[in-house]
């Protein structure tokens, strides 16, 4: 059966002249440019968090451009506000249909950061020492001009060595997995553990400089004994010209059913040569709010006999101590009697607690050092002649995590960053109940009526979910100062990112219907205040409710339980949100229009979660996502509405993130899943046997998820069949008897075309448009200028919230009692805008303020403090809030303001 493969896909490393390689994009650039709008002379860029970061380990970002303004191979120059040229690497990551540049990606290496920059078309500066990549049959070697890194093409070593100025700083980098056969539920602790090491299968060089190089390593963890394999991984290593660090993006897939295989530890480990005397060797762990655990392997402070202030102050500062021969005799002759503390560990067991311990060596007791709240996730081991700093992003948010230093008193120390701490309880990914007798569809539908849980035996599996972690490693010439360590820990926890302002993003015409914040009238200001209220409320709820943890961080809850003063974390489909009703899209639009760093970081964490944990990347449900549930993978509704690219593309184009690019690319043939799993299996009254040329793929939630994947692939310059299938749907949906309202349509998987199998009249669901279809269709209409498709979509927008009489007059029957009236006011607003219809605009605002299935006019937009015996922790409660309503209110408010804000009644 012909499907369509991933042939011809061009990664984000497309070189200059890319448009010439992509003739299927559309009109040649030279022709398109005849009537092109002028490109901005410059784009002002600033750091997301504001100011100038103290540590810039290298950063990559995306910038959009108006349609037809620039050719796809346009070079760019970057200058500071004061005019200093900054070496920059540029490549295209998105194209308009005419082949002109839509999104450019840019990367800079470490430099003394300025507060602001100017990006202009033109030739950019080259680095004095470009990053270089050399390949042979055995090894890939990357040289940043400061460090040299050797990456084997095969075997159990991920990174062979990291050297600086001819000195090896670290070696034998490897991926560690500790597997157990039991979750250790009882008090016996009988789990048998075995160690797996990541084994490299494929190494691909994705970028070669001059400013940025990227190496992709793929493989699987293999047991040291017996050869058993599990948890396939993809690791990307990022290098920048002039950098003394490398960045690692570590992704793995949990390819087990969770019943017999339990992860007891998952980490990245390096061996670090130790060349200095033990009193000139240092261990550092960053704590909370700039706190630092800073000690030497052999301490010279606090002794009964004083080595002298010069010795003590040098050791505390991590600087070379005076020669031992100059020590007082009563200290020098007794140095061997001072213990060497070779092992140090920082374990983050929860979002609120970390503990630091140390011991002299294996076989001896651990001594408690101290504990604290939220560690920054940075460590260092080395000495006055060099060492390795290592950091894990979202360290406390993704607990349990851990940083380990072992054998620092020997010739070779060991530094391990644990993505999942071996000191914690093992990962337990079993389903949370025994099925409760729900063996038939009838019983399962009954459960929906009481707990809103869509259960089905065998579907609540974690097999195929994934997680991506971000790490930084520095090869340093000496122990860094406390000030440098503080800057490095900030770079780990909040990586510096350059961004374009909302005005430029909006002016480029990307991401559909939104506009920058506008408080020019009291009515607009009131809506803006409510949008801020909702964002601030969820931001605070994440912290107050402790929505953290390895698998949980990045998601929010679905519905509130006012009786218990908690979100319904344990009630079926009311628990984790899993991006239901467009939560991701709402947060991204909130960022686009505000430029808020907090909004970006919250949406970023959600992308990392919903794109990895809520979607299957292997196994029987590969490419599908999971509906909201007590466990992210628990619901039996496995659907494309959750795996939709609509939730990922904002982050990809703003950051050029290759991992998110992989996730989006994987969705281009997601229509194949309808051959193996029928989303409507529980509610059918007929026998459905999937016919590849007549699949039951609706034109709402289903088609929008397929189409946004194809549109994004088309934008990125990928598989041409993505464009063909997208345009086939655009052509044939309007040909159906009732357009988007048709019941009885069928989809041809080979062509992407729709046809009528049997006319059943009209059909509509309140969910059809709320998982990205509104945004998709708006973009398609602007991109394609297809009158028939435009008319079909405008019909859907006009009629959804129309009166029964209006619906019946046009469709032959009414649509019945539909839900989400407030959220769908944005459809009415879209029709009002496109048709320049004042009556529709008035109706749209009436629908919005009416608040049907959302937030009505009687709501008091305030919170109540709950504390004492009423709540485990003090929390702010807004009992009227639900995430469905918040996402739809947010999207409706943002899009209505953009489309018909000039017709907002006072």
UniProtKB/TrEMBL annotation:
Record-annotated membrane-spanning stretches: none
Span of domain PcRGLX/YetA-like N-terminal RIFT barrel: 42-120
Q: Superkingdom, according to UniProt?
A: Bacteria
Q: Where is the PcRGLX/YetA-like C-terminal alpha/alpha toroid domain?
A: 495-904
Show the InterPro entries listed in the entry. PcRGLX/YetA-like (IPR045793), PcRGLX/YetA_2nd (IPR048330), PcRGLX/YetA_3rd (IPR048331), PcRGLX_1st (IPR048329), TAT_signal (IPR006311)
Q: Where is the PcRGLX/YetA-like central beta-sandwich domain?
A: 131-489
Report the protein name in the record. Answer: Tat pathway signal sequence domain protein
């Amino acid at each position: 059966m012909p499907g369509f493969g991933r042939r011809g896909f061009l990664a984000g490393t497309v070189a200059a002249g890319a448009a010439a390689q992509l003739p299927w994009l559309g009109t040649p650039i030279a022709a398109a440019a005849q009537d092109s709008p002028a490109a901005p002379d410059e784009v002002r860029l600033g750091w997301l968090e504001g100011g100038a970061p103290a540590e810039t380990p290298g950063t990559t970002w995306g910038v959009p451009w108006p349609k037809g303004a620039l050719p796809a191979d346009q070079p760019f120059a970057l200058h500071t506000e004061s005019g200093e040229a900054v070496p920059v690497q540029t490549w295209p990551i998105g194209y308009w249909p005419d082949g002109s540049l839509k999104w450019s990606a840019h990367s800079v290496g470490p430099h003394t950061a300025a507060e602001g920059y100017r990006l202009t078309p033109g030739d950019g500066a080259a680095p004095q020492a470009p990053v270089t990549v050399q390949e042979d049959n055995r090894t890939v070697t990357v040289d940043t001009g400061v460090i040299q890194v050797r990456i084997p093409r095969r075997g159990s070593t991920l990174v062979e060595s990291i050297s600086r100025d001819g000195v090896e700083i670290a070696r034998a980098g490897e991926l560690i997995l500790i597997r157990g056969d039991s979750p250790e539920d009882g008090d016996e602790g009988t789990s048998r553990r075995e160690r797996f090491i990541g084994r490299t299968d494929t190494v691909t060089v994705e970028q070669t400089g001059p400013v940025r190089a990227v190496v992709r390593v793929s493989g699987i963890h293999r047991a040291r004994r017996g050869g058993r394999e599990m948890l396939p991984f993809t690791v990307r290593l990022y290098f920048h010209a002039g950098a003394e660090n490398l960045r690692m993006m570590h992704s793995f897939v949990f390819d087990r059913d969770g019943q017999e295989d339990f992860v007891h530890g998952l980490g990245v480990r390096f061996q670090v040569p130790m060349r200095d005397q033990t009193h000139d060797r240092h261990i550092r762990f960053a704590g909370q709010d700039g706190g630092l655990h800073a000690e030497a392997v052999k301490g010279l402070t606090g002794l009964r006999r004083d080595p002298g202030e010069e010795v003590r102050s040098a050791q505390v500062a991590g600087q070379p101590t005076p020669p031992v021969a100059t020590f007082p005799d009563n200290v020098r002759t007794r140095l061997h009697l001072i213990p060497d503390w070779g092992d140090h560990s920082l374990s983050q067991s929860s979002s609120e607690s970390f503990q630091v311990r140390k011991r002299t060596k294996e076989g001896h007791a651990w001594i408690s050092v101290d504990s604290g709240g939220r560690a920054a996730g940075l460590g260092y081991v080395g000495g006055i002649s060099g060492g390795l700093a290592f950091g894990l992003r979202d360290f406390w948010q993704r607990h349990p995590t851990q940083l380990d230093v072992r054998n620092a008193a020997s010739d070779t120390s060991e530094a391990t960053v644990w993505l999942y701490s071996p000191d914690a309880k093992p990962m337990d990914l079993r389903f949370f109940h025994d099925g409760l007798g729900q063996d038939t569809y009838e019983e399962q539908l009954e459960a929906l009526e009481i707990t809103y849980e869509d259960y089905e035996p065998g579907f609540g599996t974690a097999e195929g979910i994934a997680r991506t972690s971000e790490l930084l490693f520095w090869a340093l010439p000496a122990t860094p100062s406390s000030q440098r360590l503080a800057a490095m820990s900030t770079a780990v926890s909040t990586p510096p990112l350059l961004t374009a302002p909302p005005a430029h993003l909006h002016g480029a015409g990307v991401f559909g219907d939104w506009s920058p914040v506008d408080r020019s009238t009291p009515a607009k200001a009131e809506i803006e205040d409510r949008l801020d209220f909702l964002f601030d409320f969820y931001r605070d709820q994440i912290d107050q409710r402790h929505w953290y943890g390895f698998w949980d961080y990045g998601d929010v809850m679905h519905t509130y339980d006012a009786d218990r003063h908690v979100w319904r974390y344990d009630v079926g489909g009311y628990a984790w949100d899993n991006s239901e009703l467009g939560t991701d899209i709402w947060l991204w639009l909130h960022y686009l229009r505000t430029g808020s760093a907090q909004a970006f970081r919250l949406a970023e964490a959600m992308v990392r979660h919903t794109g990895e944990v809520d979607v299957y990347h292997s196994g029987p449900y590969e490419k599908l996502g999971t509906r909201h549930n007590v466990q992210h993978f628990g619901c039996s509704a496995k659907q494309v509405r959750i795996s939709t690219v609509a939730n990922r593309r904002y982050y990809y184009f703003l950051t050029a993130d290759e991992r998110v690019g992989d996730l989006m690319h994987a969705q281009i043939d997601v229509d194949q899943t309808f051959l193996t799993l029928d989303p409507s299996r529980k509610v059918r009254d007929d026998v459905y046997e999937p016919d590849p040329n007549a699949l039951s793929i609706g034109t709402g939630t289903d088609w929008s998820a397929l189409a946004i994947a194809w549109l994004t692939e088309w934008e990125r310059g990928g598989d041409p069949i993505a464009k063909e299938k997208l345009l086939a749907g655009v052509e044939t949906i309007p040909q159906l008897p009732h357009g988007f309202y048709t019941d009885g349509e069928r989809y041809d998987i080979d062509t992407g075309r729709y046809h009528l199998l049997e006319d059943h009249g009209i059909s509509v669901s309140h969910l059809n448009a709320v998982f990205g279809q509104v945004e998709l269709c708006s973009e398609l209409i602007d991109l394609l200028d297809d009158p028939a498709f435009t008319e079909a979509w405008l019909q859907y927008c006009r009629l959804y919230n129309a009166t029964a009489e209006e619906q019946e007059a046009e469709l032959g029957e009414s649509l019945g009692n539909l839900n989400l009236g407030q959220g769908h006011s944005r459809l009415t607003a879209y029709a009002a805008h496109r048709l320049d219809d004042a009556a529709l605009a008035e109706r749209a605002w009436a629908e919005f303020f009416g608040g049907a299935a959302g937030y009505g006019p009687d709501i008091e937009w305030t919170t109540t403090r709950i504390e004492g015996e009423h709540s485990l922790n003090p929390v702010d409660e807004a009992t009227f809030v639900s995430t469905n309503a918040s996402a739809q209110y947010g999207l409706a408010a943002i899009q209505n303001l953009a489309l018909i804000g000039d017709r907002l009644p006072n």
